[in-house]
Amino acid sequence: MNIRRAPAVCLALACFAASGAVAQPKADSRAETVRKLMDCRKVADDAGRLACFDQAAAALDQAEAKGDVVIVDREQARQVRRQAFGFALPSISMFEKGETKEELDNVTGVVDSARQNGAGKWVVKLKDGAVWTQVDASELHRTPKAGMPVKIRQAAMGSFLMSIDGGGAFRVRRVE
């Protein structure tokens, strides 16, 4: 091998090896208590399998009661994604499992309160507690008031557009 190529070849091999290590998912990413419950299916003896399930179910129940394990159904996961809409959060795979990943590209809500900040930008609080601040210089054709319907949609490059009561859209950022 040419001595000049050695560093490049070593770097290429290191990158190749690292990409293979990163790309492979864990064999079983379940919580230990859930894995133990599923392992009970492998017990051949009926009485032994029942005893295993009883013990594993009790351990799972205890872990959930202590908060070590959290069980979330699909509707709860959907609500979490909706509540987090507008925040730049890391992907949490537990909320994306299932047959199809539901893409959330817009939400609707109702204005709880609205005010202009010192820079003349609108700050809109929704009934669900989300607070959005205007980030562009658009003039609103209608003053936001409590009770007005709101639609917020994802726009280009991670930005968001809000329209209030069917009016023109203006660019916003979620602050709470």
Q: What is the distance, rounded to the nearest whole angstrom, between the alpha carbons of the first and last residues?
A: 59 Å
For this structure, the quaternary state is single chain
Low-confidence stretches: 1-26
Spatial strand sequence of the major β-sheet: 1-2-3-6-5-4
Radius of gyration: 25 Å
Number of strands: 6
What is the helical fraction, as a range of percent?
25-40%
The main β sheet shows up as: 6 strands, antiparallel, barrel
Categorize the overall geometry: rod-shaped
Supply the helix-strand structural class. Answer: alpha+beta
Q: Could you give the order of the helices and strands?
A: HHHHEEEEEE
How many DSSP H or I helices? Answer: 4
What proportion strand? 15-25%
Whole-number average pLDDT? 77
Tags for this entry?
six-stranded antiparallel beta barrel, alpha+beta, 4 helices, single chain, disordered N terminus, about 180 residues
Notes on the structure:
The protein has 4 helices and 6 strands. With 176 residues, the protein is α+β, with helices and mostly antiparallel strands. It has a domain at 106-174. A 6-stranded antiparallel beta barrel has the order 1-2-3-6-5-4. A hairpin with a 5-residue loop joins strand 5 (160-164) and strand 6 (170-174). The chain is rod-shaped. 9% of the residues are buried.
What's the SSE blueprint?
Blueprint: H1 6-23, H2 32-39, H3 46-66, H4 74-83, E1 106-116, E2 122-126, E3 131-134, E4 149-154, E5 160-164, E6 170-174
Antiparallel strand pairs: 1-2, 1-4, 2-3, 3-6, 4-5, 5-6
Keywords: Signal
Signal peptide: 1-23
InterPro entries: UCP023238
